[in-house]
Amino acid sequence: MNQLVYRIGDLQRVIGLSKWTVYKLMKTGDFPHPIQLTSKAVGWRASDVEKWVNDRQQAGDSPSIDG
Fold first, then answer.
1. Class of the CATH domain delimited by 5-58
2. Contact 60, 54 (CB under 8 A)
3. C-alpha span between 6 and 61 (Å, rounded)
4. Extents of the domains making up the chain
C-alpha cells in the first residue's frame, strides 16, 4: 500500500505552520513524529497529519505559535 508522506516543506503548506512550530509541537508531544525515510531525511505520514488536524478541529484547539 502506497502512503503519502509529507516532507517538511509540504507539511508547512498543508497545515500552515512553520517548521519551528512543528518541531516545538513534536517536542511537547502535540504533533506526530516523523518517520525516517533515508539516513538524512524524514517525513510525516499524511494519515497521521490528517488525524492530528481532525482531532484539533474536534477539540476546537489551535496551536500556540508565540511560545
1. mainly alpha
2. no
3. 22
4. 5-58
Per-residue model confidence (pLDDT) at position 43: 97
Q: What backbone phi and psi angles, to 5 degrees, belong to 18? A: -70, 160
Residue 9 grid coordinates = 516543506
Closest alpha carbon to 50 in 11, 2, 17: 11
What are the b/e assignments for 40-63, b being 16+ CB within 10 Å? Answer: eeebbbeebbeebeeeeeeeeeee
| Residuewise pLDDT in 10s, the chain (67 residues) | 578 999 999 999 999 999 999 999 999 999 999 999 999 999 999 999 999 999 988 877 555 554 4
